[in-house]
């Protein structure tokens, strides 16, 4: 792969997109359920239904976008604007749809349509973007820095998502739905600016290089192409490192989704605080996350991702237990709450960075199995799973809140409802953290094993049947979950033909699939 020099400005431009990626998710997970149930007259179940319906649309949209971006270089628009960057440019004028979600006094159908529309626009921009780190450089350290730049910018966006509602309330003198509309407008402008920056200052793999590693599908019917789309998505789950990566990712992120969705309720109804206090606490937590990301970037390079992940889980879990202790001691001085908030931020920063660091290497593991580069397929799966898991977490919180006796619009809640809030904050978060911890014990992708992987890929390109040493065989088989003899598209089906999944690009076009 031909490489270009990556400079500081490229890292900044690439990373800035997480003002959209993480910023939108921070605002949605932290505030939208509260907004729907407090200002829009929706029940918790109605709000949960919006997330469920949106996931049905996303089940088609996210995989389709990933597949199209993998093959868009064959179109005239793809040749002119890039197979990835075209979609980033196309999303720019549609991103202000984020602000339309935060208007009060509308119907259930209005909130459903505006939420679904933004989710599709979000996927259209983010999925092609998530392929760019692997497209721009094959170097392990450069990819780690791209991930670091991305998550650092995402933490700045999370700070804004946390503190802006409080600042807007202070400016206008009241807590109202207008607070969230102004929040939506501010973030919409930011989203447009960063998308333009990404389009302008990033690049893609050269087209001739894409053609040399991409399967030809020109003679396939639309039905065959649709089948190929979903078979590619399912095939990503046959990569062992990717399955383990998803386990760590979901453990770290769903635990935060549950926490975020219930945190404002916890502060307002369990601790007796206000929306302004909740906003300040979320902003403080996000600031601690920003510092933690800066610390976890070199930690992952020296200590490696899985051990660093377990340190982050330990910090976050300790903080969650701290919140429970404070609730049991209530009332307590307000400043006491900042202690677990800061500890939680340190753990959450690591949990945010590490999965996106390891994600950048998944297409490398896949390449040695299939002989293909399918960054778009992996990005589609990641975005779909991320949004589905977040929606499931927020939906779950909504259903459990209502089952626990929570009444939308009330300024106080029953003791049963408050207990439900506390249990969700504690048990929901800690259960997912424990799951991620267990998965991380089996994840062995790091700088050293990645170097072995890339060396073996180079050997496959040079030799039709390379013979590995024992250590290289063990490492590659552990990362892929495949026997070495089956790699590079050499696995056979029961009939003796090469399977559709495993056909690499450099095989003859006459190979039977």
From TrEMBL:
Coiled coil location: none
Family, as annotated: Belongs to the sodium:galactoside symporter (TC 2.A.2) family.
Keyword vocabulary terms for this entry: Membrane, Transmembrane, Transmembrane helix
Disordered: annotated segments: 493-513
Stored InterPro entries: MFS_2, MFS_trans_sf
Organism the protein comes from: Steroidobacter flavus
The protein, known as: MFS transporter
SUPFAM superfamilies: MFS general substrate transporter
Top-level taxon of the source organism: Bacteria
Keyword Protein biosynthesis included in the entry's annotation: no
Pfam families reported in the protein's UniProt record: MFS_2
Transmembrane segments: 20-39, 45-65, 86-103, 109-127, 147-168, 180-203, 258-279, 285-304, 311-329, 335-354, 391-409, 421-445
